[in-house]
Design brief:
mainly alpha; three-stranded antiparallel beta sheet; 5 helices; about 10% strand
Length: about 150
């Protein structure tokens, strides 16, 4: 839970200022951070709940950041850049414009709800991939067999 709070705080801090940053570059940076976090934390407990909370935080903080940057209302920005994907899925930001390098492009804010969620299962490999298949000259203990034989004598 602390890792979640720290990551959310870092994203909120990034979206709480520096309005001179290009919106396309900002969303691409957010997407990279969200993808990395989702890949690392896909095996934790309550993954879907945490993904949902973080999605809401990032969605609305980006809305406030864009409204402050362009000095307009969130409502007008949402009409322009928020799209509803098919199948009744969550709303997403789809931003269009020039990136910091001057390329005309569009970018979609990544939603963690669509990320992979899995249960961690520890599995041991069948064989040790680092060990060579060499016959070893080791002595195996037969203490149990000897002890059983001596107990019946």
């Amino acid at each position: 839970m602390d890792k979640f709070r720290n990551f959310a705080h870092k994203l909120v801090k990034e979206l709480s200022g520096n309005y001179s940053v290009n919106k396309i570059d900002l969303v691409e940076g957010l997407n990279r951070k969200l993808a990395g976090w989702a890949n690392f934390y896909q095996f934790t407990d309550y993954t879907a709940v945490m993904y949902g909370k973080l999605d809401r935080i990032v969605f609305w903080k980006l809305a406030h950041w864009l409204a402050r940057k362009y000095r307009t209302s969130i409502k007008s920005l949402m009409r322009q850049w928020v799209r509803r994907p098919p199948d009744g899925k969550a709303l997403i930001w789809q931003l269009f414009g020039r990136s910091g390098k001057g390329n005309l492009c569009g970018v979609t804010l990544r939603r963690l709800v669509t990320s992979r969620k899995a249960q961690f299962r520890w599995r041991n490999p069948e064989t040790n991939s680092y060990a060579r298949d060499v016959e070893r000259n080791t002595v195996t203990s037969r203490y149990y067999d000897v002890a059983m034989a001596m107990s019946h004598a």
